[in-house]
Amino acid sequence: MATVFKPIRPKKLSEEIVDQIKELISRGELKPGQRIPSERELASFLGVSRPSVREAIMVLEAMGFLESRQGGGTYVRSLADVTMADPLANMVERRDPRMLHALTEVRIGLETWSAYLAAKRAEDSEIERLRELYSIMEDQAQTGGWDADIDSQFHLTITAATHNTLQVHVLDTIQSLFQTTIMVALSEFYSKEGYIELLLNHHREIMEAIADRDPERARDKMMEHLTLVEEKLALFLQKERPDTV
Fold first, then answer.
1. Which residues pair with 66 in a beta bridge?
2. CATH fold for the domain made of 14-76
């Protein structure tokens, strides 16, 4: 009977740090793409030595939770990015119509649900952030402009407002693929076709539904918006690659 038991080994400080950072990532306290404090700051916050922090960061990088970027800083890596980003990125860069269409369908499913949950769970600060981003969109639209990065931030803010960590990580990966290709292409397409005002109205209606705490309306307005995106993307791809659409 005694052979089934194993001696309890006290954890090293670095292991405690690893566990704490993993817990913060799983709870969404540390979000994909967020820069974590420096070694010196972490050592001060945790009351441990810098070598222990350095060892923990190396372990978390090896596990795929963190990544060091050129130019300095260590960032939270999207958990979905580890398995999804590289192969999908190659197909997106080639503007593979079938892959782009498939990504749009996935985005519709995830983001309509994000809007629904955000309307139920968004904090006041997150709704205020949506209003700030919308105000920027409104200013740009007056001159016929549309910034794909601001658009992306608007949608990611909605996802963050779900307070569902896995949802945030999955959509962060997919959204980065959209931003570099589809959203830029759609921005140009909308501009040429005069759809900027309609696009702005869609974002306002989504924002208002979330602010009004109306989940069904938020989901429906996001569906209306992304259905238009899907339709315009299909037309864009047909012009780009008529032989494959």
1. 76
2. Arc Repressor Mutant, subunit A (1.10.10)
DSSP string, 155-175: HHHHHHTTT-HHHHHHHHHHH
Separation of alpha carbons 236 and 230, rounded Å:
10
- pTM attached to this predicted model: 0.67
Looking at domain 87-239, its CATH architecture is Up-down Bundle (1.20)
- The SS3 of residue 36 is coil
CATH 1.10.10.10 residue spans of the chain: 14-76
Beta-sheet strands, E only, within the chain: 66-68, 74-76
What whole-number distance in Å separates Cα of residue 58 and Cα of residue 68? Answer: 10
Q: How confident is the model over 56-71, as pLDDT tens digits?
A: 898 888 777 888 887 7
Query: Taking a C-beta distance cutoff of 8 angstroms, is the pair 236, 185 a contact?
Result: yes
State what percent of residues in the chain have pLDDT above 70. 76
With contact defined as beta carbons under 8 Å apart, do 43 and 53 qualify?
yes
Contact 44, 136 (CB under 8 A): no
Q: Which of 240, 216, 7 is nearest to 101 (CA)?
A: 240
Sorting pLDDT into bands at 50, 70 and 90, what band is 209?
very high
Cα(43)–Cα(36) distance, integer angstroms: 12
pLDDT of 60 reads 87
Give the C-alpha separation, 96 to 94, whole Å: 5
Reported as a pLDDT band with limits 50, 70 and 90, residue 127 is very high
Angle between helices 148-160 and 124-141 (to 10 degrees): 160
> Among 147, 146, 175, 149, which residue's Cα sits nearest to residue 160?
175
